[in-house]
Specification:
By secondary structure, this protein is mostly helical. It has 14 helices and no strands.
């Protein structure tokens, strides 16, 4: 018993230090986790490049590739938003006029939200989509710092991640080695599934939103579909934000038909079905976990931890489920071996 405690002490100390680091650096932990998860997903690419160059150069190449991909995505989004700035201003302006009308009462339309809450949400939407340049400038120092943390985390995990893993596993007690190995494998599978499914659902959202906005008849079909897909790509937003925005716009125009289209076809089908069914099924299938359990992990993670929870929520659910399965299997194996020993 004493030797087991001695073996466990370094492992427990490492866990405590990791939890302490989470608590101290929580403000930027979302970027650390995002960088680490991207590093895990891109490790196969890193290994391929390692055949031709040194680890540091390979890590730099992969990190630079991610930076370029992010920069190109930002520039494309900026170009699309600038090209449709007039339409966005008209959309938010119409909603603002409707809300500022003293006769407007959202409760009369069955909307269980106060006018003050809708006004606050409208201000946030305006800052995000219309005045985003001003918002970026006002938060430039924080954004730059978070981007620095993201890319430093990405580079560090690519460059020293596997070395660190080897050093840490030396301190893991033998009785836990099998658990650690299996949990590492399912964590990698989960991260692959999270990112692949996230991109796939964003693309799916764009295409299935096209007929909805065609039926709506407001024009700007491609842009509105892009906006829904863009919101879907950002975990803390989701395409539901876009359809709520368009639904409020239809309310401001007095377009009852448009409200029904946006609610039943847009919100319920385009937004909710992928979130409630498609995502949990695809991620759960990869790691062999029931879609309902995976759905709870995804939504709970985002609600409680924001962007960090997008990664942590499913990973924690998978690790808990896998640990439980391994524990039950170990008990069953020990029980069977014990009964065989008794029979012999």
């Amino acid at each position: 018993m004493k030797s087991l405690r001695t073996e466990l002490f370094p492992f427990v100390l490492i866990v405590v230090l990791i939890l302490l680091a989470f608590a101290i650096f929580w403000a930027v932990m979302d970027m650390v986790l995002l960088g680490a998860s991207i590093a895990v997903v891109l490790l196969p690419l890193h290994h391929r490049i390692l055949k031709y160059t040194r680890p540091r150069i390979s890590a730099e190449i992969v990190t630079l590739a991610v930076f370029i991909a992010l920069a190109v995505s930002v520039l494309i989004t900026h170009f699309i938003l600038i090209s449709n700035a007039a339409g966005l201003k008209d959309l938010f302006g119409s909603i603002s006029i409707w809300l500022n009308n003293p006769a407007t009462n959202p409760l009369d339309f069955g909307i269980p939200v106060s006018k003050a809450t809708l006004s606050a949400l409208l201000d946030e939407g305006t800052a995000l989509f219309v005045d985003y340049q001003k918002t970026l400038i006002n938060n430039l120092s924080l954004i730059m710092f978070k981007m620095l943390v993201l890319f430093v985390s990405l580079f560090s995990l690519l460059r020293w991640g596997e070395e660190l893993k080897i050093k840490l596993t030396r301190h893991v007690p033998v009785v836990l080695t099998g658990y650690i190995t299996k949990l590492s494998e399912v964590t990698v599978d989960t991260l692959y599934a999270i990112y692949i499914v996230q991109i796939a659902i964003a693309i799916l959202t764009f295409f299935i939103a096209l007929p909805v906005f065609y039926l709506l008849g407001y024009g700007n079909i491609l842009f509105y579909s892009f906006l829904a897909a863009f919101c879907e790509l950002i975990p803390i937003l989701g395409s539901s934000v876009a359809f709520i925005l368009f639904g409020t716009y239809a309310f401001s125009l007095g377009d009852t038909r448009g409200v029904f289209i946006l609610f039943f076809l847009g919100y319920l089908i385009v937004s909710c079905v992928p979130e409630i069914y498609v995502r949990p099924v695809l991620v759960g299938r990869r790691v062999k976990i029931h879609p309902l359990i995976m759905f709870i992990g995804i939504i709970s993670g985002i609600l409680t931890m924001g962007l960090a929870g997008f990664v942590l929520g499913p990973v924690i659910i998978v690790m808990i489920t896998t640990s439980y399965r391994m524990y039950i299997k170990d008990r069953k194996d020990r029980g069977e071996s014990g009964s065989l020993f008794e029979h012999s």
